[in-house]
Amino acid sequence: MQSVNPATGEVLQRYQDHGPAEVEARLARAAATFPNYRRTSFAERSRWMARAGELLDAEKDRIGRLMTSEMGKTLKSAIAEAEKCAWVCRYYAEHAERFLADEPVETSASRSFVRHLPLGPVLAVMPWNFPFWQVFRFAAPALMAGNVGLLKHASNVPGCALEIEAIFRRAGFPEGAFQTLLVGSAAVAGVIADPRVRAVTLTGSEGAGVKVGEAAGRAIKKVVLELGGSDPFIVMPSADLDAAAKTAVTARVINNGQSCIAAKRFIVHERVYAEFERRLKAGLEALRVGDPAQDGVDVGPLATAQGVEDVERQVTESVRAGARLVTGGRRVPGRGWFYAPSALADIPPAAPAYREEVFGPVALLFKVRSADEAIALANDSVYGLGSSAWTNDPAERERFANELEAGATFVNAMVASDPRLPFGGVKHSGHGRELGPWGIREFVNVKAVSIQEPKAGAAHPGTHAAE
């Protein structure tokens, strides 16, 4: 396992994979830690989690440089990612106890309530594109609920994986409360099958989701899947076109275009299409591409050599199929895995860019004649993660909120994750939710408790039927 700088192709550091004996030791440690850890109070966990947030804030520059060197995001965005991780730690440190409080229920018993109890060791299979945020948005609620975590991170960010483990230990969490497994994808099914692992969550590609979902299904274990997206960005005639076009550029190239919730399909009403295309093209061409560690760089490299090859293939084959190249459409010469910010228009259904998720800085433009057509095209995808709609018409806003098939709809704003809001998708974008009270309740036993107090003078309380 090794870290490779995507801006140069240089190997930064090599790591020894965890073999079967080390994996077994870490599984055993997780299982041994859980019985005592689950009995810790919310106050104790809150102190540790708040301390983790303090460490992230205090060391955000160093942590940001680690992310930038391993996967190529701009240093500014990497530092912001560390800050966001600190936010989610503080959020769950403050709110977890309330989110998981007993819920009274009126029944014929003396007292009935719902209690939320931890499940045990939870395996997280995480991607490289947001190497800290994806992990912390799982780990903060899972650990605050009383579970212990096992992280199988992407193989190209081992330094980030080990650093996250170290942060939790330094924050005061017991040694076995959060551990990294430096293993390849071939080892995941075996870890899921292990009876000591009680649940699994994955953020990643659709293909990875299928494999993890199958393994979890065979083991009859709870699974949360946050998979790919081909998010629509709809622009209607009443929209503030200047704001929409500027946001569109940012929404497409965020994280060098490598985000599940990046806007990918720009569905624009014909009355404003020509001007929107002109502004989007100018915005993309004004971006500075280069070393992500340098100030003023807007777009860094793609994270892997395979990633840039995939984007190049999708664009080339789409143009061959009849798509019009608006701008870009080429690798950036020199070292590293850079691809120029690009846009395609007039994309036929047979083109790869029409159906596949393009995981790089490539905008896809579509012209429509009505809100009906915009909604139909937006929903004509196997994915349903995020969606953005730009309109100042109240009726259109209501329609987009109700009819877009996605886990989130942002009106006159770009899609973003927020600790206070549920995050997840529908269709092939997965199932289950992260963040907010919804996320912390994914990995708990929602347990019904009913207590019948003895009646005065009765030696033995009566019993109810079994079911």
Q: Can you characterise this structure?
A:
This protein has helices spanning 20-37, 42-58, 60-71, 75-99, 133-144, 158-171, 188-193, 206-219, 241-253, 270-285, 305-320, 352-355, 371-379, 394-403, 436-440; strands spanning 2-4, 11-14, 103-104, 111-118, 121-125, 148-152, 178-180, 199-203, 222-226, 231-235, 263-269, 324-327, 342-345, 362-368, 383-384, 388-390, 410-411, 426-427, 430-431, 444-451. It has 467 residues and is an alpha/beta fold. The protein folds into 2 domains: 2-227 and 429-449, Aldehyde Dehydrogenase, Chain A, domain 1; 231-411, Aldehyde Dehydrogenase, Chain A, domain 2, CATH 3.40.309. The strands form 5 sheets. Strands 12-13-14-11-10-16-17 form a 7-stranded mixed sheet, with helices on both faces. Helix 9 links the parallel strand 10 and strand 11 (263-269). Helix 2 packs antiparallel against helix 4 (75-99), helix 2 (42-58) crosses helix 6 and helix 9 packs across helix 10. It is globular, with a radius of gyration of 24 Å. The relative contact order is 0.13. Belongs to the aldehyde dehydrogenase family.
